[in-house]
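Example record for the data management plan.
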Amino acid sequence: MIQFTEQEILHLQEKGKKQPQAILNLKKETEEIMADTIRVPKTGIANWTLYYYCPVCSVSLSYNRNDGFHHICPSCGQVFSGEPYDSAWWGITNSRNYTAAFQMGLISRITGEMDYARKAIDIMSEYSRYYNSYEVHGNIPYNGPGKVGAQTLDEANFLRSFAMVYDLLWDFMTEEERENIKKEMLLPGADFLIEHRHKQLHNHEVIINSAIAIIGLIFHIDSYIRFAVYEPYGLLYQLEKGMLADHMWFEGAFGYHFYALTSFFAYEKFALHTEHSHISHPNYKAMMELLVSYLEPGFRIPMLNDTNYGHTSASLYLYEFAYREIAGDKLLYVLNQLYKDEKRDNLEAFIYGVDQLPTQETVLENYYGKTGESGSTVLRGTNGRYLLLKHDRYGGEHDHYDRLAISYLGFGKRISPDLGTTGYGAVMHYDYYKNTGSHNTVNIGEENQSPVNARLTKYEERDGVVYVEAEADWTAPYEMPDTFTIEQWKKENYCGVKMERKIAWAEDYFVEVFVVKGTREDLPIDWVIHVSGETISAPVGKEIECFSDRKPYRHLHSMKHADISNDGEGNSVFSYMDGEIRTDVFTWNQYKELYYGKGPDNPSVSNINYQIERAYGQEAVFAHVITSSDGPSRIDRVNFSWHSGTMLVMVEGKENVSGRTWSKEHKM
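Corresponding structural encoding:
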């Protein structure tokens, strides 16, 4: 066995005696498959599991192992049959089979119960009967084909998992079983992965490499190891080229930041006791520490780019292995926070974690990078106030075209959040969530922003107020990342454009000024924000039957065109209530059209408020003061004054308790 030493197995056996609940948890997770007949597709019909979503509600369908032909939406109750649902059911079934097989292998090693080992071996053997005859199939965006699954990514997860089971149960198999699984599945599978690995930076290539490398280690095939670990686009190349200067994985989504790390660590867990382990590489620790800088209040992970609710749910358990091998206060802090609300009885903790976790407290502070660099800035305040300004670089396939977007939280509410996305097979992924117009930033001509590298241009603190400025400049030279992408933007709308967003972060509110220059006069320039809760106050408006027939705006509804003074001096206030939390958006109206209504939240069965301000011309300036409170607003009045390229914002209010009035001036 390669992945565990004899001493480690003995230690796990002792832990199993002291922590019987961990073994019971493992048995419960495998219970259904242990009791069931072996379900393996005889042909390569398994499809993308992200098709297993309700097209109306954008939520995952309820999986029933005993029924591959009827698939129920847990939200609306509709039953789906046929394609792509039936074949996606097989994709989920494959995944559950190989996950359970590894768990069964562990149970047998720890407890000596051989019926678990036998079931895992039989599952592997059954797949080996059909694997070579599985047809190559799949036509998934951005993905190579698969055999057992519909994409090369699925193939790699399948083969890597069963390779680890093979290693775990090597001496429990007959020679015939070993040879059959090796020659009929693992070796031809590795050759298939080598043929279909792309020359690009991507989390897919990390997964593919990890599978090839593990199979190479098991069978001592140097060519596999060289290809997957050391050659260009191998694991080391991905680790060193895929991490940006701010330590974020280049795809810009925490879902994929950790998805890549999951496969890096899957390899490292297996290779740890070999000469081919690189667990001490500094990029691992840098990437794992980054999360602490971004954490939202309530120990939540920001939904940046193509991150959905399922992407990060299990990611934090990676810190068990990382802390054991890398250590560090920030990694320990994450684990301490994780176990404040749950027991430490998960599989990662049991197998890869240290026996006892020391306590570690950390005060989360503002986060920002170097001036002139891409990344994000995170600002924090009292009452759970949190603002993320996204000034990162374009990240390829999983990007959302939302440079200079903001996410705003406070008082335990995701007041104006990044919505993230849903399953990629759901209509709303490409039609709504992925587009610039569903984010808190500016779009031009109702089209997605074209690729650009945004950057921080200013960060300073004066008189208790933090001032941050960032820009996205389409006039600057730009080089696409080394990764395949499908064009989903309109380059000509942004050619020659420069955008700048300025933030003044005060104790109870923030000021934001958004300047856009170099636009075509015939194209609308839209500043967008969505806010949670119910609208309790807004300008009088005239209902619009259809705001737009283009994505993502075509999903907005109940839209109104505000009747406002448009003489250059008018201001408006929009007020929202989310439970007991009130949010006011003070808006500078100068020569703009104001629209407001509702659009899909995430999941799309619920709504969120939209406020859209539209301007025309070669230059547009948007200015706002946004404040939230758990009682009456502390702000009474805001005055905006734009002159010679500078916005002067006067904010006036009163103390909630004493009623004492105050005023602050911000020059931006």
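Summary line stored alongside the record: The first helix runs from residue 6 to 18.
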